[in-house]
Amino acid sequence: MTRVETIIPANKHAEPILSIRNLSKVFPLQSGFWDGVIGRMTGLEPKAVHAVDNVSLDVRAGETIGIVGESGCGKSTLARILAGISQANGGQFLYRGRDIQDYLKNPRDALKIQMIFQDPQSSLNPRLQVIDIVGEAPVVHGIIPRSQKKDYVLGYLEKVGLGAEFLYRYPHQFSGGQRQRIGIARALAVNPELLICDESVAALDVSVQAQIINLFMKIKAEFGLTMLFISHDLGVIRHLCDRVVVMYLGRVVEVAPTERLFSDPRHPYTQMLLEGMPKISLERRKFLSIEGEIPSPINPPQGCHFHPRCAFRTEHCSQKRPDLVSLEEGRHIACLNWQGTSPPPIKSGGGYAQSENA
Amino acid sequence: MNARIAAFFREFSESRIALVSLGITLFFVACTVLAPFISPINPYDLRSIRLSDARLPPGTQQVEPVPELSIPLAARDGKARAEGVTPAGDPIVLQLVPDSDGRLALEIDARNMVVTEIRLRGLPIDASVQGARKHPIRSEWTLANPASTLHIETGPQIPANLQFSVLIKGESEGTGMTFLLGTDGYGRDMLSAIIYGIRISMIVGAAGALGAMAIGTFLGLIAAWFGGRVDSFIMRLVDFQLSIPSLMVGLLVLTMLGKGVDRIILAIILIQWTYFARTTRSVALAELRKDYVDAARCLRFSALRINLLHILPNCLPPLLVILTISIAGAITLEASLSFLGVGLPLTQPSLGMLIANGYEYMFSNMHWIAIYPGLVLLVMIVAINVVGDRLRDMFNPQLKR
Q: What backbone phi and psi angles, to 5 degrees, belong to B51?
């Protein structure tokens, strides 16, 4: 059975810069020789983690998309696939209409997708000076000649708020915020179009977080970037993003424009996330407290992954996997009981990319 | 960077014994580099070695061989004159004349040579030489510390034809060279042989360990980078190799290929690459999980560039520890193989071979031939190992206070 989850961009007229269809990433848990033999003899399906499970998404140029979810929900894996660092097992991944593997063959093209990492400590090579961290890629890929490296690096350091005195220092001589700025300068120095930020402010102090978020907004405007912002911090997402994708155990459960999501969350999981969010004045609306830990991704619950923790669950939640359905323009939800959680949707069924696998 | 090195050295110096060991190690390194300049003789130069100097105890002064020359004399009616040249190049004139008493007077005019002994050979059997001692059987008269004129009696009449030879021995001179540690069975100065032995042991050890590091690190990086079957294959190869005793591998290789410095280095590389491969793989696996490697992938660097310029430099600290200990191990291995007689050729003695040579003389009360190279080897290996241990302690954060 093929399941299709489609997220239609809010504005269908804009050309998507990035388009993924039914993207999956499976990490096999038994990969040894004897596991294979035993698997073949018993006919059991090998154990595996479905880190990313049939995710579809379109990102338009200039858009900022937030991806939220608890740890282990596959958002970092998705980020790594989108950045071209790891490869998906299944599905389609187009960048500017070209298959990503084809796109990655040319390193100059592939530089258009860059990533900002979570831990600024480990994302910088401790043995390199700032000038080499930022300037190595532009020189290696022939964007600038070696003789211009210093001026070029200096230009990008200034854009992220660092001065010339930092050029010849090593990462360990910087604070966390400064290191993250260097990481941003490194990504910007190769002229990217799409910036994937994987929990990029999570490891920073709150005051520094604000500075880095402002920096992201500034560079987004200055370089005309498209951004994918992955976070578990809903406040950050609300501040930065145009659209939010909520993920749970490798699947997308809800997609909505940021303001709609925060004002009217429809999926029970989204409601739970928002309830756990501090200092946000929500509308007077009753959310049910949801108990329990996130289940093991090795052996996820049948049907809807969320049903063991869901207050609205019914009998068939544990049997049928919910497809992503469209509630209203740009608004999607994967819940069998969406009628019970909120007013009925405008129309059901995505109808956007379902034909491929139907 | 300099500040980092200074801090590193300060931390290293916290252990006194490690500092002393570092000094000793550096001394041996200096010996390696400066061997031709500091060693009294070149023990590889076979022309400078005299078998007459063999097995001299420590502190013996070297002496030149006694200068001697033999001059034949052919006298007619008791008169003869002959000339010779001393080993130093001075002329010697011998003159034989009958004197008034019916004897023959042999005048020796050796101007610049102190004559310590004269032997006359071939005189008639009934002759006699004044003050001389006759050989019990042969016609040979020996005269120690002779005067410048000898008197020879040849009976009542002087023979018309008289032929004999005169052997003149001079004074032996010291060469000014003292064998501080004695000499070995071939007459080599032990001190020089030890200094050159240190040199060859260090070169073999360092070259072997560095070669092993190059190959092991390369294979370790490959194993970590590709993972899966490549990783399994390389690591099982390492396991297989480690299950064979290293001395056996060395014996096998050297028996097949023969002796020689290059071959023993090859044997050491074959034995030691496994340690480097294992360590590199484990450290590289840890580094590969760090975000800076993902960042480098995202910047679309080639796998070669990421491995050599990003991962490898971060793997180096533990590898340097292994390298230090491996050098000591390689020296031990080379010494063992040389001791067993499959290592280096006899003309290029390493410490192990010197010990093996001296072993033959152990019970002849000539302990110095084996003990001094043994002590040097011991001190060298202990010092290098202590330095390596200190480095390992410093890189182990669990031991940090």
A: -60, -20
**What domains are defined for chain B?**
2-59+180-399 (1.10.3720.10), 68-171 (2.60.120)
Written as six digits, the tokens of A26 are 């499976």
Q: How far apart are the first and last CA of chain B?
A: 23
Could you report the per-residue pLDDT of B336-349, keeping only the tens digit for each? Answer: 999 998 888 878 88
Please give the ipTM for the structure prediction. Answer: 0.83
Task: Give the pLDDT of residue B198.
Answer: 93
Give the chain A residue nearest B290 (alpha carbons).
A122
Q: In chain B, which residues have their Cβ closer than 8 Å to the Cβ of A228?
A: none
Least confident of A27-31, A344-348, B26-30: A344-348
Q: Match 């994302």 to its residue by tokens.
A: A123
Element (H, E) at B389: helix B368-395
State whether A118 and B301 contact (CB < 8 Å). Answer: no
Collect all residues with Cβ–Cβ distance below 8 Å to B216 and sequence separation of at least 6: B272, B273, B274, B275, B276, B277, B278, B279, B280
Q: Exposed (0-12), middle (13-18) or buried (19+): which is B277, by Cβ within 10 Å?
A: buried
- Tell me the percentage of chain B whose pLDDT exceeds 70: 99
Contact A127 B314 (CB under 8 A): yes
Model pLDDT for residues B263-304, shown as the tens digit of each residue:
999 999 999 999 999 999 999 999 999 999 999 999 999 999
Nearest CA in chain A to B300: A107
Query: How is chain A split into domains, by residue range?
Result: 1-29+49-62+71-105+242-358
Q: How far is CA A69 from CA A10, A270, A351, B340, in A?
A: 21, 9, 26, 68
Average pLDDT over residues A235-263: 90
Count of other CB atoms within 10 angstroms of residue B302: 12
- Measured CA to CA, the distance from residue B252 to residue B271 in angstroms comes to 11
Which residue in A126, A127, A186 is closest to B295 by CB distance? A186
**Mean pLDDT computed over every residue of chain B:** 89
Architecture of the A1-29+49-62+71-105+242-358 domain: 3-Layer(aba) Sandwich (3.40)
Could you tell me how many residues make up chain B?
Answer: 401
* Residues 6+ away with beta carbon under 8 Å from B344: B200, B204, B259, B260, B261, B264, B334, B338, B350, B352, B353
Q: What is the DSSP letter of A301?
A: P
